[in-house]
């Protein structure tokens, strides 16, 4: 029971940190503790430094991303590519907007962060094999481009101000059709 309580407290801290940092990226540990509904001493028992908390928040965000990708059914082989991509992008944007925080650079990615990148790359590779995506770029490069579109909509104005549905629609359209002017628009 104590371990479950400990995990619930840790998760409350991370959720509180994400909410606080979204409003004020410079927020300190006292504000984060208040948002999590705990005292500062409890916060420091879980995370000795702000940098440690931010680093763990990146890991937590990636874990949540993997969970929502699974819940969204974004791996379903029975869905058409645009629907699969839209589900995945919406899931990643929703999680990213809830938990995105600038974390200190660490030497390597958390395994969960690598798994999100791997999921995107495998999705692109499957779509390439099915003839649904271009093959003049390797899956890792095309996947990185997709990831960059998603990350950009989490960090750059005016993209941040778009709602999740509008941002997801723009990303899916841009990724699948490119930014070229159609023949109707050019004429």
How would you summarize what this structure contains?
By secondary structure, the chain is an all-alpha fold.
Word description of this protein:
Helix 1 packs across helix 4, helix 4 runs parallel beside helix 6 (111-129) and helix 7 (139-155) packs antiparallel against helix 8 (164-177). 71% of the residues lie in helices and 0% in strands. The mean pLDDT is 86. It has 187 residues and is mainly alpha-helical. The protein has 2 domains: 1-48, Arc Repressor Mutant, subunit A; 54-179, Tetracycline Repressor, domain 2 (Orthogonal Bundle). The protein is elongated and about 55 Å long. The longest helix is centred in the N-terminal third of the chain and has 22 residues, at 2-23. The chain starts with a helix and ends with a helix. The protein has 9 helices and no strands. It has helices at 2-23, 29-36, 40-46, 50-71, 81-99, 111-129, 139-155, 164-177, 183-186.
State the major sheet.
none
When the domains are counted, the total is 2
Average pLDDT confidence is: 86
Helix-strand sequence:
HHHHHHHHH
How would you describe this structure in keywords?
187 residues; Arc Repressor Mutant, subunit A; Tetracycline Repressor, domain 2; 9 helices; 0% strand; elongated; DNA-binding; transcription regulation
């Amino acid at each position: 029971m104590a371990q479950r309580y400990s995990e619930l407290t840790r998760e409350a801290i991370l959720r509180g940190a994400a909410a606080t940092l979204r409003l004020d990226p410079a927020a300190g540990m006292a504000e984060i503790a208040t948002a999590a509904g705990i005292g500062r001493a409890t916060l420091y028992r879980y995370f000795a430094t702000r940098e440690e908390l931010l680093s763990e928040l990146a890991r937590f965000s990636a874990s949540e991303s993997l969970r929502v990708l699974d819940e969204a059914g974004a791996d379903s082989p029975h869905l058409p590519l645009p629907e699969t991509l839209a589900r995945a992008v919406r899931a990643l944007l929703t999680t990213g907007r809830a938990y995105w925080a600038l974390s200190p650079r660490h030497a390597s990615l958390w395994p969960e962060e690598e798994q999100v990148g791997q999921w995107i790359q495998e999705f692109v590779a499957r779509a390439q094999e099915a003839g649904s995506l271009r093959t003049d770029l390797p899956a890792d490069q095309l996947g990185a481009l997709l990831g960059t579109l998603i990350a950009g909509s989490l960090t750059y104005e005016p993209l941040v101000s778009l709602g999740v549905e509008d941002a997801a629609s723009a990303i899916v359209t841009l990724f699948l059709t490119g930014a070229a002017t159609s023949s109707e628009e050019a004429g």
